[in-house]
Amino acid sequence: MSDLLPQELRILVAVAETGGFSAAAAALGLTQSAVSHSVRGSEAKLGAVLFERGRTGASPTRAGERAVAHARRILRLYEVMGAEVRGAGRGEGRDTVEGVLRIAAFRSAALHLLPPALERLAARHPGIRPEVRVVREIGAGAAGEVAEGRADLGIATLGSPEGAPPGLLSGVLAEEAYRLVHPAGHPDPKALPLMDWDENCGSYTRSWWRSQDWIPRATVKAEDDAMVLTMVGRGLGMAIMPELSLREATEAVDITDLGPRGPVRQVGYVTTPESASTLAVRALIRELRSTKG
């Protein structure tokens, strides 16, 4: 099998991200026939159909999704190679770390775990330019962004039965307990309706919920944890929330411990083996670990 060239990888990514050969051609400054020819060549080299063609465009097959994820990650290594080599050339005895560092994180982690780490990272390595995207921790979540090649490092919830996508490296940064949060001064918070949001916790914590006969089914669903906190503060219900989310709690709510057998969740970083060896990702992991606790 012949190796795919960088331009062939770029074309695969462009077709997947634009949803069609014509749109990919326009984005890359190529003709549609050149894009079609390149994709057919890539399919012949890889021995698999990568895109389903239709009148409305092109969508990756399962094989295509895997190919595009690898393509993104390989192209990213080309970028990092250039940045690290240039930094080594200017380092005068030590490596100068520079370039874009792509980070994916769920909302409360982006608000509370990342800022102190990024502040120290900027002080030590001013040439690094972090790009942070907040993603919902549902389904593949932040770990999926890393696996798909859209992020160099993700801040994700760990420890679920599904685990991180195969082939990724991870490390625990914090273990946070869940608490009962309810309107301040309420005489019987457990009698209130339960408020929840989709990305609150995984199935491993939900099993604890199901074993508690005092927890009703959620009657109110909100978009995110900030909305849940606001609604609880307005007296509309109670909620069970992790500590990171509760850092935004105001005097409008009270927080009650759920005891030593209450649920906990692990929050950590996720990256690929190739990104784990890059200078910028290694530097960020060091800062995240020093933020730990």
- Helix fraction, binned, reads 40-55%
Give me the CATH architecture of the largest domain, please: 3-Layer(aba) Sandwich
Strand content: 15-25%
Q: Helix-strand pattern, N to C?
A: HHHEEHEHHEHEEEHEHEHEEHH
Stretches with pLDDT under 50, minimum 5 residues: none
Span of the ends, CA to CA: 49 Å
Given this structure, which CATH class of the largest domain is correct? Alpha Beta
What overall geometry do the principal axes of the alpha carbons give?
A: globular
CATH topology of the largest domain: D-Maltodextrin-Binding Protein, domain 2
Q: Could you say how many structural domains there are in total?
A: 3
Structural class: alpha/beta
How would you characterize the largest beta sheet?
9 strands, mixed
What is the number of helical segments per DSSP (H or I, 4+ residues)? 12
State the fourth-level CATH superfamily of the largest domain. Periplasmic binding protein-like II
* Rg (C-alpha, Å): 23 Å
Mean pLDDT: 89
The overall strand count is 11
